[in-house]
Amino acid sequence: MAQALDALEASLPAQTNGTNENPKPLNTSVTVTKPIPYTFDLGNLLVTDANPLSPNPSQAHLSSVARECAQALINQLLTTCPISSSSDGVLMTLPPPTTPLPREKPLPTEKEKTKWEKFAAKKGIKDKKKEGKLVFDEETGEWVPKWGYKGKNKEGEGDWIVEIDEKKEREGKGQDGGVRNEGRRDRKEKVKRNERRQRANERKERPKGGAEV
Predict the structure, then answer these.
(1) Which conformational region is residue 171 in: left (phi greater than 0), alpha (psi within -120 to 50 degrees), or beta?
(2) What Å distances lie between residue 77 and 18, 70, 87, 144, CA to CA?
(3) How far separated are the first and last CA of the chain, in Å rounded?
(4) Among 54, 55, 65, 53, which Cα is nearest to 26's?
(5) Which of 24, 105, 142, 172 is at 20 to 30 A from 4, Cα to Cα?
(6) Could you tell me the pTM of the whole model?
(7) What angle do CA 139, 145, 149 make, to 5 degrees?
(8) What is the pLDDT of residues 149-183, one digit of tens each?
(9) pLDDT, tens digit, for every residue of 50-66?
C-alpha cells in the first residue's frame, strides 16, 4: 500500500512558485546544524549566519534559512538564559549585549556656561552643598522655612516694636509704607535685581541674530 502511494505521488506534477525550479520542502526540525556554527548576541536577540548562500537563491530557500536562524536563536535562549516565574508571567533574563549599536540621535551639544559659571571656574569657586528647606531658629527653638510663609527671611517683620534706621530716615527712605515694610520692599527689590541680571545674561549668551522668545 505504501509503495502504491509513493508511486502515485511521484506521478503527480510538482507545484511550482512561478519558476521552473522545484520547491524544496521546508525543514521543520527543531535541531539545526550548519557547517559554520552560528554566532549569537542574546542581549540583542541577534544571530549571525556566516554560511554562504547560493548565487541565485529562491524565496523558499531564503525562508528556510531564516526559519533555521530563528530556530537556532530560540534553542540558544532556552538552553542558556535563566527562566523564572512571577505574578506577571514567565520571564527570561537576557545577558548584556555584546554588539554595539549606533545611536538613534546625535550626541547632545554641550550647554554653554553662564556668566556666573565662567566666573566661578575662573576664580575656583565650587558649588555649595545643597541644604534643606528648613533652618533652625535659635530664638524659638524650632525648625522654620528659609523662605515663604513664616520664613526666616521675614524675621522681625511681625515684631510689635521695630528699630528705626536713622540713616534711612535722614535720607527719606523709611517713610513710604512705614518701617515695617522695609524688609518686604528689600526682598522685592532683590528679586527684581536678580531678574534684571538674568535677562542681561540671557541677552549676552544669545547668539547674534537670534530672536528673543
Answers:
(1) alpha
(2) 37, 11, 22, 59
(3) 88
(4) 65
(5) 24
(6) 0.40
(7) 105
(8) 777 766 666 666 666 667 766 665 545 455 556 66
(9) 999 988 999 999 999 99
CB 212 within 8 A of CB 195: no
Give me the amino acid identity at 188.
K
E strands, 10-162, are 39-41, 46-48, 83-86, 89-92, 134-137, 142-145
Give the Cα separation of 27 and 69 in Å (integer): 12
| Cα–Cα distance for residue pair 193/149, rounded to 1 Å | 22
Alpha carbons 152 and 154: distance in angstroms, whole number: 5
Mean predicted lDDT score pLDDT of the chain: 77
Say which DSSP state 131 is in: -
CA distances from 14 to 3, 58, 78 (A): 19, 16, 38
